[in-house]
Design a protein that fits this description.
CATH class: Alpha Beta
CATH superfamily: Aldolase class I
Bound molecules: flavin mononucleotide
Number of helices: 8
Distance between the termini: 37 Å
CATH topology: TIM Barrel
Strand order of the largest sheet: 1-2-3-4
Shape: globular
Length: 178
């Protein structure tokens, strides 16, 4: 959700509100907690998950203290007993988002960013996360799940074909035979 509305409320450089939804971190988390609470009340907490990326500067998002903001967010979200937290792992001088989640999130954790089969297996064994997600590997590997199951080599994707017109880079990555 880097740069999307919830992150804009959470982040100090985009949230300029002077009401109960802006200012201190306790106010900036309010919109997200209210949205999650409302979704859980409508469809059931077990059908609601959320994705965060503390410390990720994509789309010019910046928070002066992501550790404080996201610690408060996770502490407030944990009692909602949602289906999962989906975390993009960022480790930079400002924050280690995995360490933050381990300390403040009480619930199922899906981990993302640069996951390989080997890394996922190791982290699963270590109890670091309950599940893992793959983004870029799915672009070049339409049969990613099957390749992971077969321990087959993964194809690399070509970033030059991202956000371009035409089928190239979208539907022309081959599946492994047999
Ligand atoms: C082309 C592209 C578009 C993406 N769009 C979004 C998006 O709209 N929202 C989002 O939260 N993440 C988006 N991501 C980030 C991915 O969901 C994922 O977090 C990222 O690729 C890291 O996972 P990976 O190392 O498995 O690729 C996008 C990534 C790529 C490559």
């Amino acid at each position: 959700m880097v740069g999307y509305l919830p992150a804009q409320f959470l982040s100090s450089n985009t949230n300029h509100r002077t009401d109960d939804y802006g200012g201190p971190a306790a106010n900036r988390i309010r919109f997200v907690i209210e949205a999650l609470t409302a979704m859980a009340a409508t469809v059931g907490a077990g059908r609601v998950g959320f994705r965060i990326c503390p410390g990720n500067p994509f789309n010019d998002i910046y928070d002066k203290d992501p550790r404080e903001t996201y610690a408060l967010l996770l502490e407030a979200a944990s009692p909602l007993q949602l289906a999962y937290l989906h975390l993009i792992h960022v480790s930079n001088p400002q924050v280690d988002s995995l360490a933050l989640a381990q300390e403040h999130w009480k619930g199922p954790l899906i981990l993302n960013e640069g996951i390989t089969r080997e890394r996922a297996e190791r982290l699963l064994d270590e109890g670091v996360a309950h599940a893992f997600s793959f983004g870029r590997p799915f672009i070049a590997n339409p049969d990613l799940v099957s390749r992971l199951e077969r321990r087959a080599q993964l194809a690399e994707f070509d970033p030059a074909t991202l956000y371009t017109p035409g089928p190239e880079g979208y539907v022309d990555y081959p599946v492994l035979p047999g």
